[in-house]
Amino acid sequence: MIEDLRSLLGGERVLTEPAVLAARSRDSWPLRLVQAAIGAESAHLPLCVVRPASTEDVAAVLRFAAAKAVPVVPYGGGSGVLGGAAPSTASIVLELGSLDGILELDEQNLTVRVQAGMVLGSLEAWLKERGYTTGHYPQSIGIAQVGGLIATRSAGQFSTRYGNIEDVVLDLEAVLPDGSVVRVSNEPRRSSGPDLRHLFFGCEGALGVVTAATLRIFPLPASRRLAAYAIPSMRHGLALLRDVMRDGWRPAVARLHDPIEAARSYGAAVQAGECILLLLSEGPAGYAELESAALSRQVAGIEGARPLGPDPVVTWLEHRNDVREFYRYVASGVLVDTIDVAARWSVVADLYDAALADLRASVPELMIASAHASHCYAQGTNLYFIVAAQPPRHAEGVERVYWSIWTSLMRVTQAHGGTISHHHGIGKARARWLSSELGSAYPLLRRIKRALDPPGVMNPGTLLPEDDQQP
Amino acid sequence: MIEDLRSLLGGERVLTEPAVLAARSRDSWPLRLVQAAIGAESAHLPLCVVRPASTEDVAAVLRFAAAKAVPVVPYGGGSGVLGGAAPSTASIVLELGSLDGILELDEQNLTVRVQAGMVLGSLEAWLKERGYTTGHYPQSIGIAQVGGLIATRSAGQFSTRYGNIEDVVLDLEAVLPDGSVVRVSNEPRRSSGPDLRHLFFGCEGALGVVTAATLRIFPLPASRRLAAYAIPSMRHGLALLRDVMRDGWRPAVARLHDPIEAARSYGAAVQAGECILLLLSEGPAGYAELESAALSRQVAGIEGARPLGPDPVVTWLEHRNDVREFYRYVASGVLVDTIDVAARWSVVADLYDAALADLRASVPELMIASAHASHCYAQGTNLYFIVAAQPPRHAEGVERVYWSIWTSLMRVTQAHGGTISHHHGIGKARARWLSSELGSAYPLLRRIKRALDPPGVMNPGTLLPEDDQQP
């Protein structure tokens, strides 16, 4: 089979070196990272890693895999934390990183077209030199690729103003599981049947492989204002964010960190028990000043809230993508995980309280748990939990503690009517909860999967749980 | 079969009276309206009209239709101008208007849940009494139903600020062609696999029937400013709108009417050859003033532009949904049609010129043709053509002139890389162009159709052309 693939793609594009296979046997899934750190690796080695040089190469690999019924796992930057790109069985890993070209910058229509393997941070740096931005800044910006961000329904740190990946991507090219290439567009906006781009936002490689995309870009904003505030409680802060959104403001950044995170990262600015609210307004000339002043007045209405000036936001901007601490903990055998959920405003404060209480009650190995809200909508917001626990130093112990954390958070989120995933996706970690998340829409997703991938070879076990792969 | 349906739904819910069948044999498709007006009707009478009283009734009808392989045509307000709800063959017409309940108003999370047969104008009036709006105001607001607006990917007159129907609807319930009921949500925002709501926005009844939806609502805005300007040419006006969007402004209304429309509706304000630009800014306190002042400065940069004060916008607000003139012309045998396309900024002025020139050259029966741009994006805008022609007074003559108008506009739009439909949908009128509109995505749509509607009974000939209904 390896020889067949080599004759299809060229020998140098099909890798079987043990180090390459090992590196592509996992992504940034903490479960596997901790197991590897304590010498209790349980990842599956891929059969081979292929590096397509073109959309046609991707199509050739998918046609081959469908014909031979061999699983294929698309692999982007490997920044996913849910095991979505970790092969669950002997698979071809399809590494997209060689498809990293910028195809076209269109300054008149404010778009840039790129191949799916383009690292978003590299694209942003290139755009910034020319006075533009995509407005999309996930924490993984330095390694995540455009195709992976599409496949997982990414959200960026400035999403409250700029929207999420489905707002950023106007047009995309994808290879379907049978090897056919489709290009789907909604540009500038269409009413020509269902907007089929959405089959690929969040498909996690289970319905096809994104190979190129047209992204909207923005000129760098004319105005920007930063402001931080100490807020007496999460409940006060969440009510404030709801009111801000209700009034029609859209601060690019609106982050409410709970007292644990406030003390950990902004201890010099806040007092014990206080939350911190980071606000960044930007837009056309005069807009940031107007919005910032309005938000300042709204904060002033909260008894016990205090202005902290812009410095905490500056600190956050500088350190926001630093994940070295995560890797240090994980390397020492500590399970650190980030679990993003979302809920309506009416329940989100209760969900915050209940989730932390349940974690403390049901996970004896828990070291710390905290959360922030950072992506606001008129209807609700996300909660981004950061959880650390000290599991026993063997594979099963890590599994047990890992799943006890997830079971607690998913159960409490669903009990409050929230969604189990705001922007990280489903991967393998959440697949067992997808059926209850989607309810009556779950069989519809399975029908679409069977229609597009009858042999069930596309990323088995990711998104749809493994026992649901069969027609 | 009628008896079977009566035993399923109750006798009074299955109608076969000739007047009812005749009324439901067409929607607002000008082709059929003009044919009917000159006594050359060519519509197909439905087999019967059913009026489901519940989602379960809709499911029962679809199960019945699938089992008997009888076509089903969902029928909302009948405001569609493309024949999308006009049966192409002996069909069951599924009239949704009895499903018109308001299910829940959630003021804390700013949502309202309604059944699909709710007339949007009635909902808006009900919301306005309580201080809210959906921000969605299509011209058909007085008759169009929520389900129909979803099924055709509606845009409202304030879309530049509030977005289109896919931004308005957070969660929907639909009955699939096999009778199964699904509820699909993206609330407040999810990363749980593909956002399957999008299978139903624009499905035009070909993939299922929407039965309920949760819409976002907004408190009535705190600030509003109106301003109109005379603009020397469409090219100047389109460049201005591009710059406004580029800077990050989002005027709720930004309508640029060409000299023909300006003279027709605002003749007292403009001089011959001038365009008129209508702007309406609204938002939180202070926002409308800031945006309106910025836009005023931008207009001042155009040589020959003149401020006209707010009155033309007030006039537009008062008369914007008055379609009596359309019906008067159509009743007299004149073909009047509204044809909405869209394109990138870089080509839209050329498209405007070329489209009018081609209509004049290729449609000898043309009386008048004009256009306005009214839904702006950072990447481009729509062009809404209004065309009148005097066909011969017989069925074939009307057909010939009708299709010559459409062929001209669709051909020129596609030659400029535009989309053939901004917000009216495809219906039957545009179905022959859907394959070239979607390109490589067309076979994907057909696969989805076959997966969900194997017998091909859902609204045959609408969206997908008739010869594409078979598996």
Structural commentary:
Two copies of one chain form a homodimer. The first copy, chain A, is an alpha+beta fold. Helix content of chain A is 36%, strand content 22%. Chain A has helices at 2-9, 18-23, 30-37, 55-68, 120-129, 146-151, 159-162, 165-168, 234-247, 259-266, 287-300, 311-319, 324-331, 345-362, 395-415, 431-438, 442-452, and strands at 14-15, 48-50, 72-75, 92-95, 102-106, 111-115, 132-133, 169-175, 181-185, 209-216, 218-219, 223-231, 253-257, 275-283, 306-309, 335-344, 366-373, 380-389. A seven-stranded antiparallel beta sheet of chain A has the order 15-12-14-13-17-18-16, sandwiched between helices. In chain A, strands 5-6-10-8-9 form a five-stranded antiparallel beta sheet. In chain A, helix 9 (234-247) runs antiparallel to helix 14 (345-362) and helix 14 (345-362) runs antiparallel to helix 15.
What would the keywords be for this entry?
18 strands; seven-stranded antiparallel beta sheet; alpha+beta; homodimer
What are the SSEs and their pairings?
2 copies of one chain form a homodimer.
Chain A: H1 2-9, E1 14-15, H2 18-23, H3 30-37, E2 48-50, H4 55-68, E3 72-75, E4 92-95, E5 102-106, E6 111-115, H5 120-129, E7 132-133, H6 146-151, H7 159-162, H8 165-168, E8 169-175, E9 181-185, E10 209-216, E11 218-219, E12 223-231, H9 234-247, E13 253-257, H10 259-266, E14 275-283, H11 287-300, E15 306-309, H12 311-319, H13 324-331, E16 335-344, H14 345-362, E17 366-373, E18 380-389, H15 395-415, H16 431-438, H17 442-452
Parallel strand pairs in A: 2-4, 3-4
Antiparallel strand pairs in A: 1-2, 5-6, 6-10, 7-11, 8-9, 8-10, 12-14, 12-15, 13-14, 13-17, 16-18, 17-18
Helix pairs in contact in A: 9-14, 14-15
